[in-house]
Amino acid sequence: MSFASNTSSAGRYRRQLTPKQMEAEVFARATRALREAGAEGGIAQARAIADNRRLWDAVLDSVLDPTNRLALPLRAQIASLARAVLRELDAEAPDAAFIIEMNEQMAGALWN
């Protein structure tokens, strides 16, 4: 399969996803990066942690935005979760299993 053909298939796949499913895919990608980096360590692990931090920063910013249309109690719960994950990501030795679990929970909730 050529690169152009593979890229075209990926584009068709993305067009079939809902916006929430696309968000779930971002969490899945961040989770995959953490898992793969766990074995490698070093720069791969640092990159995966930084990518996850950016993801959860974006989640927190989104739910704190006053124009966000989610119900206020749900926004508060997601903000609390995001802060917990960000605290873990800022730890000297982040608990990758915890972060992976939170990513998977968010992806699962978004996919449904």
TrEMBL record:
<protein>
    <submittedName>
        <fullName>Flagellar biosynthesis regulator FlaF</fullName>
    </submittedName>
</protein>
<dbReference type="GO" id="GO:0044781">
    <property type="term" value="P:bacterial-type flagellum organization"/>
</dbReference>
<dbReference type="Pfam" id="PF07309">
    <property type="entry name" value="FlaF"/>
</dbReference>
<keyword id="KW-0969">Cilium</keyword>
<keyword id="KW-0282">Flagellum</keyword>
<dbReference type="InterPro" id="IPR010845">
    <property type="entry name" value="FlaF"/>
</dbReference>
<keyword id="KW-0966">Cell projection</keyword>
